[in-house]
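Write out the 3D structure for:
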Amino acid sequence: MEPGEVRPPAAAAAAAVVTLLLLTGCVQAPKPLYHWGRYTPQVYESLRNPDASVQAQITVLEEDLQRARAQGALPPPGLHAHLGLLYSRLGNDQAAAEQLRTEKGLFPESAAYIDFLLKPRGAQK
């Protein structure tokens, strides 16, 4: 191309597309912070249908936890707390407390709420 000569619009567009492809080809998507799995749909379903099988929900969330561990990923905030509340609905207070303590350990900002949930029911007035 000679100085002062104008590049055809199609050539300029093609050069821009090639440059864009080269630049974006090197970019990697960031790794997700948490393994969300089926957590969000499970919470939605439990709110939408309170009579849904608690044991089935527990099974799904426990499977998601196993997948997260296998991938070396963290579960999302609230998963262990939700699982603890589900265990509580089944009357399994030991498993519920374990899940709630795990939530508090992973997400210390939840401590006030988790401590409230861990209080004996008779102590709440």
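The mean pLDDT is 86.
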